[in-house]
Write a structure and sequence with these properties.
The chain has helices at residues 10-25, 29-36, 84-101, 121-135, 154-168, 191-210, 226-237, 260-270, 327-335, 343-346, 349-363, 369-394, 398-417, and strands at residues 40-46, 58-66, 72-73, 76-78, 106-112, 144-145, 218-222, 241-247, 250-253, 280-282, 294-297, 316-318, 339-341. The chain is α/β, with parallel strands linked by helices. A 7-stranded mixed beta sheet has the order 10-9-8-7-11-12-13, sandwiched between helices. Glutamic acid (GLU) is lined by residues 73-75, 97, 147, 149, 179, 322, 347, 350-351, 354.
């Protein structure tokens, strides 16, 4: 096992991955400095009053890391422990992700430092609206376009859209201010499922390259939210046996394959995996270590580290979450021969379909679910193929290949625009 070199946060992971890439690409110091720093970094404190009359004290963050290739794009993370540093790291990841998947956006991210599970829906709406009013001047179709991320969902994006058009006194806005909205409000069919499905398409593509029959594989999924639950259902459709799943409430293992439809029903009723009768209860992180072919970490950041990477047995790991692996954890698994599909590729399906929503709204037309799914499938396979070919020809990992391609595109964009403002 290698010794631990750097701290284990999203920010440190993102900076480390960028610095390694900059070295491989031999970027000039001037360019490195220009790319590393976020373009805009905002922290605001709010004290909105909830419907029960209580005030809450909430810090919110917006970071626009880069806008070389287009307006900054990235979700809103709502969690009690989210920090400005996390948002800087995640925002930087969005810059490479949008460049790699090939959509005309830069990278951005926002954070709301509040645990959404502690308030009613109405209470959450108050916080979301307070956030929107506070950051209004930093949002816009040509500036920063938010979307859902951990702790936020379609309904929240609907409130944001309403708050923005209400503030301008108009029924609609000119252009797309937020993606991941309810379809009735200009959202796009298939956006909610896009990240989980896109992640599975990259696994499918990996299996094809490696000569693995996906219908003979066993999969474990960490996280059963928007990404993990969709990924589990989608990979099961391809015949893989999903034998282990976890969320914050616990983990469940069934060597015969879990009944995912029953599990989704259980989670919808009880709020979590805990108590599901169709398997053996295990601790949440045990799911990372089960004997399986495919592992999809789709929960939080920094789950696989130098401390536990040697316990992971999967041959293919597709990062459904952002930064679920620290660089040290990654190094151990790569040395063991695991095929790791990095987050900026594996979970880019979400932002790709956000781009379709953005264009749909700009052009005021409707795309069908079939169109969306076909385009998502084609794009994920195409980009996977490019990253795979690069990794083979340069003899680097899939992570390094994805980072090289994403960072190089941003560097090329900066040079094409001109280095001086
Ligand atoms: N939050 C998602 C991500 O990390 C989606 C971002 C978006 O659609 O803008 O990729």
């Amino acid at each position: 096992m290698t010794s631990k070199k750097i701290p284990e946060g999203i920010f440190e992971t993102s900076i480390y991955n960028f610095q390694q890439t900059a070295k491989r690409l031999k970027l000039s110091d001037k360019l490195i400095a220009r790319i590393m720093e976020p373009k805009e970094k905002i922290e605001i404190t709010l004290n909105p009053e909830k419907p029960d009359g209580d005030y809450v004290h909430v810090k919110v963050f917006v970071v626009r890391h880069n806008d070389t290739l287009g307006p900054s794009k990235g979700g809103i993370r709502m969690a009690s422990d989210v920090t400005l540093d996390d948002i800087c790291g995640l925002s930087m990841e969005m810059t490479w992700k949008t460049a790699l998947i090939g959509v005309p956006f830069g990278g951005g991210k926002s954070g709301i430092q509040f645990d959404p599970t502690t308030v009613s829906e109405a209470g959450k709406e108050v916080i979301i609206r307070a956030f929107t009013r506070a950051v209004l001047r930093h949002i816009g179709p040509e500036v920063y376009v938010p979307a859902p991320d951990m702790g936020t969902n379609e309904a929240d994006m609907g409130h944001i859209r309403d708050c923005i058009s209400y503030s301008s006194g108009k029924s609609i806005t000119q252009g797309c201010f937020v993606t991941g909205k309810p379809v009735i409000l200009g959202g796009i069919e298939g956006r909610r499922e896009a990240t989980g499905k896109g992640c599975v398409y990259t696994v499918q593509a990996a299996c094809q390259k490696m000569g693995i029959d996906i219908s003979q594989t066993r999969t474990a999924v960490q996280g059963f939210g928007n990404v993990g639950s969709v990924a589990a259902l989608e990979i099961a459709k391809l015949g893989s046996k999903v034998i282990a799943v976890s969320d914050v409430t616990g983990g469940i293992v069934n060597e015969q394959g879990l009944d995912l439809v029953a599990l989704v029903d259980h989670v919808n009723v009880s709020g979590g995996i805990k108590g599901f009768a169709g398997g053996t209860d295990v601790a949440s992180d045990e799911v990372l270590y089960v004997d399986c072919d495919i592992l999809i970490p789709a929960a939080a950041q920094s789950q696989i580290t130098a401390q536990n990477a040697d316990k992971v047995k999967a041959k293919i790991i597709a990062e459904g979450a952002n930064a679920p692996m620290t660089p040290d954890g990654d190094e151990i698994l790569y040395a063991k021969g695991a095929f790791i599909i990095p987050d900026i590729l594996a979970n880019a399906g979400g932002v790709f379909v956000s781009y379709l929503e953005y264009t749909q709204e700009t052009q005021r037309e409707q795309m069908t679910l079939e169109d969306v799914e076909q385009r998502l499938y084609n794009r994920m396979f195409k980009r996977f193929g490019e990253v795979y070919d690069y990794s083979q020809s340069k003899k680097v990992s899939m992570r390094d290949a994805a980072m090289d391609i994403g960072v190089q595109k941003v560097a090329d964009g900066i040079i094409a625009r001109g280095l001086l403002p």
